[in-house]
Amino acid sequence: MAEATETDFLKQQKGRRRIKNFLAAINYHDDDLQTTIKIMRMKLLEIQQRDSSAVINKPQTVRKIIFKFSGSKTVLHKHDDIEKDSRNMSHSETKRQKINNGGMQFVMDFIKSVGGSEAQFVIEKRLTISDVNPNQGRLLIPVLQLKNKKGFLTADEETMMGNKEDVSVWVFDPERRKSMLNLAKWKMSKECYVLKTNWNQVVKANGFKEEIVIRVLSFRVDDQLCFVLDRVA
């Protein structure tokens, strides 16, 4: 028993020295240093005891102890800094993801409301200067950037485009206004689908500018190919 008591005493002494060295390292001065050391050590022991009694296999996070001093009074705060920083760093991304997921659900609900089916995510695109240039009058949808590599056309529509014929499609803008546009397939430096004819009116009505991000989905009402546009950012 005496040996155990002596061991505990040595541990206490070692702990006090560490705290004293820590305070010296940060140039902290206190008229009542021993009281400060006592308070800090008690708080550290409380944290250690709580951590030891935590549920086994509970995901661990690294904790950082921050000491704030006011006169001889010591206030100890415990923060799960890594977890907190991660939340802060990803806050904007999480918010954007929630908005995007919510927006996608609204789009799917709209498609159902007009009797649509076979909905497919076509592309999410940051508009380029050529996409909103009235002299160009078209939206380029690069084939290589399609979300669904199988495409959204029927065999007959593919044949029409192979013969350089346009396919008439309904396009619903972000305000769910409906316009009739033509869909073509162009072979440029890269193969692209092109929404044209009345595209300028869609751009003007929605105030589309360069760098605006839109999402495009395709669907069908009976056999009619339709597209719905949703503004993301």
UniProtKB/TrEMBL annotation:
One of the record's GO cellular component terms: nucleus
The keyword Nucleus belongs to this UniProt entry's keyword annotation: yes
Keyword Transport: no
Protein name: B3 DNA binding domain, DNA-binding pseudobarrel domain superfamily
Main location: nucleus
Domain of life: Eukaryota
Subcellular location(s) per record: Nucleus
Alphabetized InterPro entries for the sequence: At2g31720-like, B3_DNA-bd, DNA-bd_pseudobarrel_sf
A molecular function GO annotation: DNA binding
Record keywords, A-Z: DNA-binding, Nucleus, Transcription, Transcription regulation
